[in-house]
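Issue: copy button drops trailing tokens. Both records pasted manually instead:
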Amino acid sequence: MSLILLAQEPGNNQSAWGFALGMETQTLGIESLDRHKPMESLVSSGQNQLGMTMGINYRKIIWRGLAFEPGLFFSYNRNKVNFSPGSQERFQFVDIELPLHLSVTNQKSGTFPVRGKILFGARTSWNFFQNPAEKLRFLPERLGLDLGLGVAIHCDKWIIYPEVVYSHGINNIHDFTGTEYDYFVGQAVRDKLAFRLLFERNK
């Protein structure tokens, strides 16, 4: 048994911690039930605004270029919601996120320091900010399916991962509580697009 274990390919059990910083934008998709005036919806989402994301990431190599990447992230986003006639409210989202990703990175070839990377998986998050609830209320929990593209850049003692990650919201966050505009809104979802840099110590 000892000979078999020693014969395994080295590096399969490598793991590393890293940290990430980035900016992201969030689309708040609100389904309008105002069928009589589709071009003049009573409730609509305003223009997207930039937010931020930061956190820690753990990478565990499963086999060759395949790795499991869980993390703990903090993100901040805000969206304006328009209410007819002529009013507007800002909703803020201060989230703690738990992404669970699988990533595939090209195996290193020669001395070229850049390798492509694809990641996919899911995430769950919770919004800790208490938004105004007189006109419309959103649930704090969010579930998303993630897909990302990036590269791994080897720089001396560090590996830098520039990544673009799209997160598609899959749960309805509209909390029907009988507020003023509840009957004019169907489902609401949160989609996010993040541009981030992940830094990892090169062993």
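Record 2 (pasted manually too):
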Amino acid sequence: MMKLNGFGARPWLAAAAATVLLAGCGGSQNDALPLIKASVSVKTFSMGGMCETIPVRIVPVELRGEANKYANNRTMVLEVAMEGPTDENGAPTCNGSGETLPLAPGDWEFSAPLASGSTKCTRDIQAGGDLSIRLVDGAEGCGGPQAAPAAEDVAPAEGEAPAEGAVPAEGEAASAEASAAG
């Protein structure tokens, strides 16, 4: 019979403990869920003949569904390295692209400071959806299907009263005053 004493027993016991721990660590069900990564491309005008890295801020707006355990659910910044400038229709233009870290499914806001000002858009990120985000200087949106706007951002239809607490647009205020006076 082998005698385990002193230092000879410690490595054997450590190996046995590690084996028991690893045997109990089975994969979880959401390991099988897809990793959702969006491709982000940026097109902006050159400032002084230079193309600098553009920070694209990615913010969760409303997450829905089940995500892979490696999916991110917090605000992050993607540094997009820009190339150029190239001459596009007489304008010095910078182009760049990058890929996000894995995202949890749901609505995400993408924003970036471009030459003409900040741009932002919201996109519904889903495994089977459009994962191509295009931020173009002077153009609104993400270059694809947008997430549904929040209820408070939607103007009421013609003849429909605005939601309680909503501030009417300038034209609506004037027509409401005219109606009240008439």
